[in-house]
Specification:
The chain has 119 residues and is of the alpha/beta class. The protein contains four helices and five strands.
Length: 119
């Protein structure tokens, strides 16, 4: 897992298989960003092969916290397989998903100007 700032957005690059233990690590990383008042977060899932469907709910809690702080948690680069996992457990309706990391980062500009959609 790698973290970086692009503009004022915190990007977390994730790769491999995401099990429950790894999801807790992701939750903790997002928590540390929240502690530093960095509330615009993108999970770059481009290199994720599989995600444990039981662990996705952990992200929903962080999404709610970030949105309550006028931030957001957006997903970028999901493979069709990973997207299907989100869809099967019904989590696709809560998260904004973008094909590319650049699109996800740019979407924050739209949101802050009041032109974006809030899901």
């Amino acid at each position: 897992m790698e973290r970086k700032m692009i503009q004022d957005v915190s990007v977390i690059d994730i790769s491999g298989d995401i099990d429950f233990r790894e999801m807790i690590r992701i939750k903790d990383v997002i928590g540390s960003l929240i502690d530093r008042e960095q509330t615009k977060v993108v999970l770059n899932l481009r290199s994720v092969d599989h995600i444990n469907y039981l662990s996705i709910g952990v992200l929903l809690e962080r999404l709610r916290v970030l949105r309550n702080l006028n931030g957001d948690l957006k997903l970028a680069g999901m493979t069709p397989y990973v997207r299907d996992i989100f869809r099967v457990v019904g989590m696709d309706r809560f998260f904004e998903e973008y094909m590319t990391l650049e699109d996800a980062i740019d979407s924050f500009d739209d949101d802050w100007e009041g032109e974006g959609t809030f899901h």
